[in-house]
Amino acid sequence: MDTKLLEYTLRLGDNALILGQRLVEWCGHGPVLEQDIALSNIALDQLGQARMLLQYAAEQKGEGFTEDKLAFFRPEEEFKNALILELPNEDWGFTLARQFYFDTYNYFLYSELLKSSDENIKAIAQKAIKEISYHAQWSAEWIIRLGDGTEESHHRIQKSIDDLWEWTGELFTKDEIDLFAENDNIGPNLDVIKENWHEKVSQILEIATLKKPEAEWMQSGGKQGSHTEYLGFILAEMQSLPRMYPEANW
Amino acid sequence: MTKETSLEDRFQHYVDAENKIEPKDWMPEKYRKTLIRQISQHGHSEVVGMLPEANWLTRAPSLRRKVALLAKVQDEAGHGLYLYSAAETLGADRMDMVKDLLSGKAKYSSIFNYPTPSWADMGAIGWLVDGAAIANQVMLCRTSYGPYARAMVKICKEESFHQRQGYEIMISLANGTPTQRKMAQDALNRWWWPSLMMFGPTDDLSPNSAQSMKWKIKRKSNDELRQEFIDKTVPQAEYLGLSIPDKDLKWNEETKHYEHGEIEWTEFYDVIKGNGKCNKQRLIARNKAHDNGEWIREAANAYAKKQSERKKHQAA
Predict the structure, then answer these.
(1) Which residue of A has its CA nearest to B292?
(2) Can you tell me the distance from the alpha carbon of A48 to that of A39, in angstroms, rounded to the nearest whole number?
(3) CB pair distance less than 8 Å for B73 and A250
(4) Which residue of B has its CA nearest to A233?
(5) I want to staple A112 with a disulfide (CB 3.0 to 4.6 A). Which of A188, B100, B104, B296 is the partner?
(6) What does pTM read for this prediction?
(7) How confident is the model at residue B237 (pLDDT cuts 50, 70, 90)?
(8) H or E stretch including B257?
(9) pLDDT grade, residue A1 (50/70/90)?
(10) Which CATH superfamily is domain A3-244 in?
C-alpha cells in the first residue's frame, strides 16, 4: 500500500464528503424551491464523488475496509478535508461564498486531475469534472447576483467573502503529500492552481462589484488532520447510528 | 335553461366523454376553485413533506442511503414545483399560495405533522406514506384536468422509486439485528394508522367527494383507495415478517379483501386541528426558510432588473 497515494485520495474524498454533509443541512430550508433543488444537486454530486473516492481509498487500505467504514468509523484527526468545508453554513450567502471559493479551486484541480497518472483518480475526475464545472458556474453567478443585487446583499456577501478568506490559503499550501502527487504526476502543481484561482476569483469579484480581500494570514491544518472545533460535531451527528450499532448493516 | 347551466352541461358531457380540460377551456368556477385548493394543498404537502425526512439526511447510516434519501427529498421539492405550476395554469399565484401555507391558512397532508424519531421512519415513510400517496396519485394520473394529470404522471414515476427506496430500508432492518427489527416494527406501529388516515374520512363523511367524482377530479372514493392500499400492503408486511398493528385485520375469502379495525378518527381530527407533535415546528421551519431567504430573493430580482435595464440601454 502506498500511504502517500492513500493520503492524497483521502484528502480528495474527505473534501467531497464533509462539504456534502454540510450542504445536506440546507435541504428543505433553502430560500426558494428552485435553489433548494440546485444546492441539493451539488450536495448529491459531492456525496457521489465522496463515495467513489472513499471506495478507492478503501480498496487501497485493503481487506475489511469500505467507504462506510472510512466515513463512519474514523476519528476527527484521521479526516483530511480542508478546514473551510467544515465551517458551519451560517446564512445562504456564507454557504454560497464558500461554494464559490471551493468550486473555483475544485474546477482547476479536477481539470488537472483529468491528466492524473493514477488511472482511478483520472477516471473519477472524468466523471466529476462535468459536475464541478457546473458548480463553479452556478456559484460564480450567485456571487455576481448578490454582489450586484441590493445594498443589503452587497454588504452581506462582501462580509462572507471577507470572513472566509483566511480559510482559502490551505487549499494551495504544499506539503509532502502534495509534492509527492505533483512529482508522480498524480495531482497538479498547486502553485499553478493558485494562480488560476486568484485570476478567476478576482475576475468574478470585480464583476460582482466586490472587493477582493487582502488579509495575508491563512489558517491551515485540515489536510494534515488538525481541525477546527466544528468537525467533531459533524462527525458526532453523521456517525451516530453506525457507531451506536456497529454490528448492524443498513 | 340559463346560459350558465348549458355551459355546465356541456362541460359535464365533455368530462363524461373522458376528455381532458385544459387551462383555456371554460370551466365552472367551483371546478377551478376545487382544483386550485387541491393542487396547492398537494404542492404544500410535497414541500412540508421534505422536512420529516430531511431530519435524517445528516444521520443516514451509510453513504448509499444518504445519497438515496437526499435524491428523494430533492424530488419532493421538484414535485412541489410541478404542482405549483399546475395550480398557476388555473390562475393561482405561487407567492399567494406560499403565503397561505406560511400563515397556516392553507392545509397540507397531516401525515407530515408526525415526528421521525428513528431511522426506521425513513423506511416506513417511503413504504407506507409514499405507498398511500401513490394509490391516490395513480388515480390522479387520470384526473380530468390536463396539467394536473400530466404532472401526476411524472410524479408517479418518481414516487414508485421512492417507495422502493423505503421498502428496501425496511428489508434491511427486518433482516438485521434484533434491535433493527424492533426499530422496523416500531416504525410500522407508528405509521400504519396515520397512513390509512391519509385517504381522508370514510365515504359517508366525505361531503365534497361526490362533486369531485362527478367532475372526474377524483376517480375513486376514499374507502376504495384505502382498501386498495391495505390489500397491497399487508402481504408486504408479511414478507418483512412484521405485524400490522391491527388485531381486527383479517382476510375475507368472499370479498377477496382484507377487513380492518376501526380507525381512530379523533386522532386524525386532532392532528388536523394543529395538535400533532410537529404542526408548529413544520410551519416554523417553512417560515424561517422563507424569511431568511428574503434578501436572497430580493437580490436576485434586483439583479435581474438591473440586467434587463442594461440590455435595454445597450440596445438603445
Answers:
(1) A31
(2) 14
(3) no
(4) B58
(5) A188
(6) 0.96
(7) very high
(8) strand B257-259
(9) confident
(10) Ferritin, core subunit, four-helix bundle (1.20.1260.10)
